[in-house]
Amino acid sequence: MSDGITAQFDREAEEFQARMVADKEAFTRRYQEQLMQGVVSDGSTANYYELPVGATQLQDLISFKNMNAQIGEIFRACYRMGQASHSPDLRDAKKILFYAKAEVARLEKLNAA
Predict the structure, then answer these.
(1) Residue 12's pLDDT band (boundaries 50, 70, 90)?
(2) Please, is 92 exposed, middle or buried when counting C-beta atoms within 10 Å of its C-beta (0-12, 13-18, 19+)?
(3) Is the predicted pLDDT of residue 1 greater than 60, yes or no?
(4) Is 0.90 surpassed by the pTM of this model?
């Protein structure tokens, strides 16, 4: 029975991943079309703020945007700030700063190469 559940989970995970890839491709095409047409956001909305179809939790967004570990940790800490009893705001702010500095260092090293 557990093999059946595992197989079902694997199928559902593959289907979800395929939908996320398709959504990202469609989003990228729309964004590129807008760039080609010279569409400029007025600041009130932009298609890069649209949520991908099927996204139900932060990990879906992290995967969809292909965030690395540092950016993912920043995103999670920002979202839960003030809500997790084990993590006061100051701890989350320090965590955000730690991962932001790590990302800046990574990008500086990458750009220097």
Answers:
(1) confident
(2) buried
(3) no
(4) no
DSSP letter (8 states) at residue 88: -
Q: Which residue has the tokens 């839960």?
A: 80
Tell me the per-residue pLDDT of 89-106, one tens digit each, with 9 for 90 and over.
999 999 999 999 999 999
Residue 7 sits in which domain range? 1-40
Number of domains in the chain: 2
Give the residue from 95, 90, 92 showing the smallest Cα distance to 70.
95
Q: For residues 2 and 69, what is the distance between their CA atoms, to the nearest angstrom?
A: 31
**How far is residue 76's CA from residue 74's CA, in Å, rounded to a whole number?**
6
Residue with tokens 């993590």: 87
Chain-centre distance of CA 54, in angstroms? 13
Answer whether residue 87 is part of any domain.
yes
Residues 6+ apart with CB under 8 A from 55: 20, 61, 64
